[in-house]
Amino acid sequence: MTNAQQRRIRSFHVRRGRMSTTAAEALHELGPAWLVPLGDSPVEWAHWFGRNAPLVLEIGSGMGHSTLAQAAADPDTDVLAVDVHTPGIGTLLAGAARAELRNVRAIVGDAVEVVDLMLRPDELAGVRIYFPDPWPKVRHHKRRLIQPEFVDLLASRVQPGGFIHCATDDLGYGRQMVGVFSKHPDLDNAFVGFAPRPSDRPPTKFEQRATGAGRQVVDVYVTRTLSA
């Protein structure tokens, strides 16, 4: 790892929690085939998925509810889930096995390092980032994931015509997302501001708690321009 990577401000809280027996068993039994080791070089995804198919990256998959629902709804697309929360990844793998989903793989690690080191340019059909840590205090805004430098990196990994879809229950963060994406020369926001809530984004318990607490949930959806 370079000195610059070591100095990078972390955009996430390291969450600790007890791992269920089911999650632990899934990591042990399915990990060798479905859990991609964190590495420092591009990965041959066809090896891990057993086929060549469009690849969507999900950053911050949590307990995997959205990941599993969208993977089940689109079996012709492969989904790579990345999260720093090991129990959540274990729960995701257990759910994928229970639903007999073969198009889900996961990485435990920092998404910035995964995108930077393990993915090739133009390799992704899309990116999903649902409810990233909003870091609501102004002095912590520098820790937010959606920053110009990371968006530059993401845009380089998304193929022309591919998408980046974010959702947040922090209106200020949503506006920041729109601002950062709108300034990128290779990204197009057809909605100018927030996007209508896509029908293929399943509701989660987190989102239901947010709306129940009166917080507005907004979606930001941009595509990489075909001429990029």
Write the layout of secondary structure elements.
Elements: H1 3-7, H2 21-34, H3 45-49, E1 55-59, H4 65-73, E2 78-83, H5 86-98, E3 104-108, H6 111-118, E4 124-130, H7 148-157, E5 158-168, H8 171-182, E6 187-188, H9 205-212, E7 218-224
Parallel strand pairs: 1-2, 1-4, 2-3, 4-5
Antiparallel strand pairs: 5-7, 6-7
Helix pairs in contact: 2-5
Strands across the major sheet, in which order? 3-2-1-4-5-7-6
Spell out the helices and strands N to C: HHHEHEHEHEHEHEHE
Helix coverage percent = 25-40%
Number of helices: 9
CATH topology: Rossmann fold
Describe the protein's architecture and organization:
This protein is an alpha/beta fold. It has one domain (3-224): 3-Layer(aba) Sandwich (Rossmann fold). The chain has helices at 3-7, 21-34, 45-49, 65-73, 86-98, 111-118, 148-157, 171-182, 205-212, and strands at residues 55-59, 78-83, 104-108, 124-130, 158-168, 187-188, 218-224. The protein has a 7-stranded mixed β-sheet, sandwiched between helices. Helix 4 links the parallel strand 1 (55-59) and strand 2 (78-83). Helix 2 (21-34) packs across helix 5. Residues 1-7 have low confidence and may be disordered.
